[in-house]
Amino acid sequence: MDEFVTAVEREVSLRVGDVSLEGTLVIPETPVGIVLFAHGSGSSRFSRRNRYVAEMLNEAGLATLLFDLLTREEHEVDQFTREFRFDIGRLAERLVGVVEWVREQRELLGLGIGLFGASTGAAAALMAAARRPQEVAAVVSRGGRPDLAGASLGQVRAPTLLLVGGYDEQVLLLNRQAARALEVECELSVVPGATHLFEEPGKLEEVARLARQWFTRHLAAATVR
Q1: pLDDT above 60 for 165
Q2: 220 neighbors 111 (Cβ within 8 angstroms)
Q3: What's the predicted TM-score (pTM) here?
């Protein structure tokens, strides 16, 4: 892992439409792609689980961008009302804006873009992938609700990996339904013995390993340097 000691990490402000979103960008010395994290219900860019996965991706030479899909004011309201976390259209629109922001950064030019979505963030990731088929090269969902992407599922062109805990029965059922609606390379991987948040020993590590394999394969092929 010493080869990635020189990775650059910095806080960034992303102007998307009429709002500014805060994010953390990490770029290894020679990146082979970049993964944008779309967190789910009630979470933020400081999510312990997403940051762990991001670190694993960084070690494989993938740049990562963890950011908040909601503004601070929206997040505070959502903590009580939960009105924004299920506004998939709003979340997807902002994620598309972040994809466009990445395309404008000189240091990220040519990198294949992947989207990693958790919970409702997975639906936003798939909807954004459907809207930007030329830019998004791969999608991974962790314990996600891809079913909430609705009709957009049939328009996704990015290879998609759905990761679900074996004990997360309802979400597993919804993921199976979504997988049938996807008309692209799709793999549904069930992590045995894991619940919704993959909190059991070794389960989040397995999620990170599978996501790293998926992104490394698809983003390296899409990256032009």
Answers
A1: yes
A2: no
A3: 0.92
